[in-house]
Amino acid sequence: MSDTQSTHPLEVEMTPTEIRGWVEFSAWCALVMTPIIWWLQGPSVSTDQFVVRTGLLVISGVVAVAMRTWTILRPRLPGEMAVPQGEQPNTTDQALPMEPKH
User: Fold this and answer.
1) Rounded distance between C-alpha atoms, residue 61 and residue 28, angstroms
2) pLDDT, block means (10 residues), the chain with 102 residues
3) Helix axis angle, 16-41 relative to 47-73, nearest 10°?
4) CA-based angle 27:34:38, to the nearest 5?
5) Comparing C-alpha atoms, which of 40, 37, 34 is closest to residue 63?
6) Which of 17, 24, 60, 97 could form a cystine bridge with 30, CB 3.0-4.6 A?
7) By C-alpha distance, which of 66, 70, 63, 69 is closest to 27?
8) What does each C-alpha distance from 35 to 13, 22, 30, 86 come to in angstroms?
9) Hey, where are the domains in the chain?
10) What is the pTM of this model?
């Protein structure tokens, strides 16, 4: 068995679509949590702290809006989530068969 192959039978790789979804979720969470953190910690006591706080707010806002825009505006890629005609796509509430990697 190679060093790069996983030995855990339940480990499943994430698709790029799932990764983009988690990145967007994380950005929105950071954006929502920033004012709460500012309220808990009080006002900035230095210029550096103000710059870091503002940077977090700007970066999380830009990433969240960009990921949402990407999701809405981009056309579906040819191989992404392709389902043969006449079949129902798998949803997250359906169990997928687990096959061990050899």
Assistant:
1) 7
2) 58 82 93 90 90 93 93 66 54 56 58
3) 150
4) 170
5) 34
6) 60
7) 63
8) 34, 21, 9, 48
9) 16-73
10) 0.59
